[in-house]
Design brief:
The protein has 2 helices and 11 strands; from the N terminus they run βββββββββαβαβ. With 170 residues, it is mainly beta.
Length: 170
């Protein structure tokens, strides 16, 4: 996996890598040493990821990891390690164990029916917010949820997260 490449249309269109398929309760993360998706743990509760979950290559978030993404639930089940061309719809503001750990809500760049968070079903937004508010409860780890913000705030957030020396593809 080359992790120093991104779309020249960033942040309006970007590449994301799926680490966890929707409806999974298995937490996986990129292992940069092996350049592979690695099993981390099974969630300690009965919750499942509400959408495909992963990260944006060539970005760096406040927690030291790439920026996290959640694809809306209308997207298909996508296998771990799959590269997907995406567009941002909004951002869930949150803190995880004392670090800013915002989640970018996305859909595929080809999806013309959804362009902003206002186009997403409220139930999915509520379910996703509830998931992140509670997914670490049994691990006694503190998560603080702010709220959902729209596409423009997601774009502003992403502008500052691209790593230096990133190669941009057409």
């Amino acid at each position: 996996m080359k992790l120093n490449i991104q779309s020249e249309q960033f942040p309006n269109v970007f590449y994301g890598i799926i680490e966890i398929p929707k409806e999974s309760n298995v937490k996986c993360e990129l292992n940069e040493d092996f350049n592979m998706i690695e099993f981390d743990r099974e969630l300690s509760n009965s919750m499942i990821y509400p959408g495909n979950y992963g990260f944006i290559p060539s970005t760096l978030a406040e927690d030291g990891d790439p920026v996290d993404i959640v694809m809306i639930d209308s997207d298909p089940h996508i296998e771990a390690g799959t590269l997907v061309k995406l567009k941002p719809l909004g951002i869930l503001k949150m803190m995880d164990c004392g670090f800013i750990d915002n989640k970018i809500l996305t859909t595929t760049s080809k999806d013309k029916s959804i362009n902003d968070i206002t186009d997403v079903y409220e139930k999915f937004l509520d379910k996703t917010k509830d998931f992140f508010a509670n997914y670490k409860n049994l691990d006694n780890q503190k998560v603080v949820i702010g709220g959902w913000k729209g596409r423009e705030e997601a774009l502003e957030y992403l502008k500052d997260k691209i790593k230096p020396r990133t190669k941009f593809l057409k």
